[in-house]
Design brief:
Layout: H1 10-17, H2 21-28, H3 32-39, H4 50-60
Helix pairs in contact: 2-3
Length: 72
């Protein structure tokens, strides 16, 4: 089964909110490296759990679809 790459928009949402990945890590109670691994790539890392996306969306007070870039 081939996995589909999901475009990552977390970095842009953080920028809009004025929150650094380090601050998100502190808010979330995760190690900063964990957050940077999610924020840095153009697509979400393979195996990123929906639970992870829900938690980030809740912390940032946005919908999950805001964390995913829309394709043109």
């Amino acid at each position: 089964m081939q996995l589909m790459a999901i475009p990552n928009n977390i970095k842009d949402v953080l920028k809009e909110k004025g929150i650094t990945p380090y601050k998100l890590a502190k808010m979330w109670g995760k190690h900063p490296n964990h957050v940077y691994a999610l924020v840095k790539p153009e697509t979400l890392p393979d195996g990123t759990a929906l639970k992870t996306m829900v938690e980030i969306a809740d912390l940032l007070n946005v919908s999950i679809d805001r964390l995913i870039k829309k394709s043109n």
